[in-house]
């Protein structure tokens, strides 16, 4: 049963906490009159209107239209599931008090094992409902379908479906903290969005937020194919996708809006891509039509750029890094005047007010697009990297040693000029970090470089006599890098200790004790502590370092303070004596008591 069902303890817990939700209890794709609830049965129960009697082990009295999956479990589908009622499908998982709970890192996985898409979203499939007089109830209202912390994985074969390799959508679709992986189709490798514009009528739409979109492929719309511009992608990563038609794009649109509609939608700008990282894709990235906005995007190292086709001057590309995308970062067909393509860093084709050409400036600080940042390089972006505190990786901007002031950077503090009627930066970046209130001081691209000179979290080491302490302050550096030792002389003059400067212009300030050892630091933030003898006790001090960001902070003190505590003691040579017990039952009772004392608290993600 372990491969099919959620553990009994989790079921009991889930039953208590989620008594009103629909808990999926098997990972198999089955429809069977038993007490096991599959994902297909759970959706069918919602489609039926959630009768109090339940359906094949799903739901019951007071059930809601929220379907709960077990985080990190894989749910297999043999064929598509039809959804025609409003529903939310989300992951649930346990974390303990010491976990750093990052949304999007514990997703349940829904995987197609047949050759089909995963979901068809269409409210018109619902059986007709009649009034008492026999007339049919109007069924024109769109439904809402939301996936939260769920990874959708395609069939892994060429052409999982003709349209929509993962989802065919005719409704309001929202995916948050999700993943769209391995979708394949003729149109819409991941999603096909169906529906034409009708005045005063709700339109089908796709919203992707904080989502990894990777390894999808199609002839047209390698990721999304939409019949009209009805999609938004925000705070997401778009990587390793492909569109094979040379005139198509990963985010493709069949028909643009007419002039009247364009001017209405252009005033709102709720469609497009912003605060997202897009790299290593094949084919054009997006067709920017009237009513669409591309803003604060890092779009680099793709085989082709974007297509700008906004004849009614209601499309915008702004505040973005658009570089090294084949021979042309922006292919302008119509509407790309200087105010509509503004404040971008580009290689070719994206000229506009406030925009800058990359020229001979090195883009990546390293020899590869992904991996370790070469801090000796003059590249203005670190390679793409995943970080522990966020579900999605990014290219971190850099402040170089050659930058004498922030204005020397091509990225940092390069917001649009005020009074020019230009598109401003987004309020927060891909990670959710707030951008400055002063609109002229925001950073272009997906990531806002954070400067914080407040005291960092503590580090320390416990040593036995003869030992050496090994620590790291890499996490405390946040978005900065340690100043190289050879810069410290020019920045601060001679080291007051009379010794050569170390990385970060390291200073040691004792706090509660006198100095009892020697501390060294390397360029990566690795700290080594060597005691000056076999003393028993503590050595407490603060590490003071300067980073590439703190040296430009508004504070007069460029140092970041990191409290440090070293504890040294002799080895414990107490001999471990085995004590014979009178039987296994006593030992078991003792173990139970000990586990009770541990008090290991768990919390459920909701």
Describe the protein.
- The protein has 606 residues and is mostly beta strands.
- The protein has a domain at 459-569: Sandwich (Immunoglobulin-like).
- 8% of the residues lie in helices and 30% in strands.
- The chain is built from 5 helices and 44 strands.
- β40 and β41 form a beta hairpin.
- The two termini are 25 Å apart.
- The model is unreliable at 1-19 and 576-604 (pLDDT under 50).
Helical stretch tally: 5
Tell me the overall shape: globular
Q: Indicate the multimeric state.
A: single chain
Q: Report the β-strand fraction as a percent range.
A: 25-35%
Judging by the overall fold, what is the CATH architecture of one domain? Answer: Sandwich
The beta-strand count equals 44
Task: Give unreliable regions as ranges.
Answer: 1-19, 576-604
The CATH H-level superfamily of one domain is Immunoglobulins
Largest sheet report = 11 strands, parallel
The CATH C-level class name of one domain:
Mainly Beta
CATH topology of one domain: Immunoglobulin-like
Radius of gyration from the alpha-carbon trace, in angstroms: 29 Å
- Write out the strand line-up for the largest beta sheet, numbering strands in chain order: 1-2-5-9-13-17-21-25-28-31-34
Which class best fits the helix and strand makeup?
mainly beta
The level of helicity is under 10%
Mean pLDDT: 88
Keywords: Membrane, Transmembrane, Transmembrane helix
Protein name: Rhombotarget A
Organism: Acinetobacter silvestris
